[in-house]
Amino acid sequence: MNNVNLVLILLAGGIGTRINRKISKQMIKFNNLTILEISIINFSKIFKNIPIQIVTNDKDFIEVSEICNKYDLLTPVLGDDKRHKSTYNALKSIEHINPKYVLIHDVARPIISSEVIEKLVSYSKQEIFCVAPVLKISDSVRKISKNTLKSSISKNDKVLVQTPQLSNYKILKNTIKNTNKIFEDETSLFLHNSMQVIAIEGDPLSLKITYEKDLNLLEPHLTKNFNNYITKIGNGFDIHRFDNSRISENNFIILGGIKIKASKKLIGHSDADVLLHAITDSILGVINKGDIGSIFPPTDDKWKNADSSIFLKHASKLLQSEKGIINNIDATIICEKPKIIDYSKEMKKNIANILNINEQKISIKGKTSESIGFIGRKEGIAAMVSTAIQIKNTDF
Predict the structure, then answer these.
(1) Percentage of residues in the chain having pLDDT higher than 90
(2) Fold adopted by 6-224
(3) Measured on CA atoms in the order 98, 102, 108, 110, is the torsion positive or negative?
(4) For 145-166, b where at least 16 C-beta lie within 10 A, e where not — what string?
(5) What is 229-392's CATH number?
(6) Measured between alpha carbons, how far is 110 from 163 in angstroms, rounded to an integer?
């Protein structure tokens, strides 16, 4: 859709005090995209080369400016604590464009309906004051005071008003300039001044984020708009034997990236960290990038005595390039000694730092083999790992 007589204004100046977050609600992220960016992307799918003016606040100004540069938008302007004043600041900032109409939208409504937009913009070919999407009220309406219902109100001829709202640019700017009253939106301003406001059918999914529960309701819709994710499981296994030729109380082994005192060292081309090796392979398995031996071959002297965190960091970078997100890591270390429970907390913390994830996503358990076989004879240590990863479905 193309319209040279139209400018889109996105109001993103609110703080959202009713949501228990330290950041503004429009800066909350889904799949690494802010709610503001989701709105920008959704509108960009509908319009081609439309000027977009964003109104922000002092707190978010730098980050919003970076977003505007990223999406090649107009320079953002600061808003006000009142919506109609923020709108006026935006209208003043686009005087050089001087469009016939403006489409004004609350970014707190990140789900955009192309059908609603098309209906709104169709009125730009006419001479109108304002057009707004509305929803009919299906629930009963009552007046309330101090958690007590006081009286009934007929729901007939009553609607809920949404955004975006299409308004005549010059008339809106002049009307706001000449008023001292506070108005909730453009429709209330025009109605107060006895100007006709046309209603079109809105979209129930265009829910305004006001409370925390609104975020929970919208999350499935916000995430599916950008990525189709599925959960994949990767398995990793590694085993190393002890060096019986060098027994000393000063020896140590590396497990989960930490040093643990042991009488015998583990034999391996690198540092023989069975846990990090198994986790690395489990991640590589999900993204189908081979295994630790093919990427860091033991025949290459470059990796002689190498710190295994190098391997895990590499797997993590490959995972990030695939936009994968680790859900959890479930690891079992099989050995007679050391006692894994004494070190699991430190291991989890180290692995979480390497992968930049919450350590609560990592489980590390220790098991013995009840003196049976290779491990039971204290000849080596093994590790088994399952890693669940949320990753984009390549079947789409």
Answers:
(1) 56
(2) Spore Coat Polysaccharide Biosynthesis Protein SpsA; Chain A (3.90.550)
(3) negative
(4) eeeeeeeeeeeeeeeebbbbbb
(5) 3.30.1330.50
(6) 10
The per-residue DSSP string of 124-189 comes to GGS--SEEEEEEE--S-EEEEETTEEEEEE--TT-EEE-S-EEEEHHHHHHHHHT--S--SSHHHH
Residues 359 and 351: their CA atoms lie apart, in Å, by: 8
Position 126 pLDDT exceeds 70: yes
Q: Choose the weakest-confidence range: 96-105, 237-246, 379-388.
A: 237-246
Query: Are the C-beta atoms of 150 and 107 separated by less than 8 Å?
Result: no
At 225, is the pLDDT very low, low, confident or very high (cuts 50, 70, 90)?
very low
Over the Cα atoms of the chain, what is R_g? 30
Q: What is the pLDDT of residue 208?
A: 87
pLDDT at position 173 over 80: yes
Q: CA-CA distances (angstroms) from residue 269 to 25, 244, 296, 297, 311?
A: 50, 16, 10, 9, 13
Domain boundaries, the chain: 6-224, 229-392
**What single-letter DSSP state applies at residue 117?**
H
Q: Which residues pair with 334 in a beta bridge?
A: 367, 382
pTM of this prediction?
Answer: 0.58
Return the percentage of the chain with pLDDT > 70, whole number. 95
DSSP labels, 14-78: ---TTS--SS-GGG-EETTEEHHHHHHHHHHHH-SS--EEEEE-TTTHHHHHHHHHHTTPPPPEE
- Strands 264-266 and 229-247: what pairing? antiparallel
* Structure-block tokens of residue 234: 């990767």
What does the mean pLDDT of the chain come to? 89
* pLDDT of 289 higher than 80: yes
Nearest-angstrom CA–CA distance, 112 and 43: 7
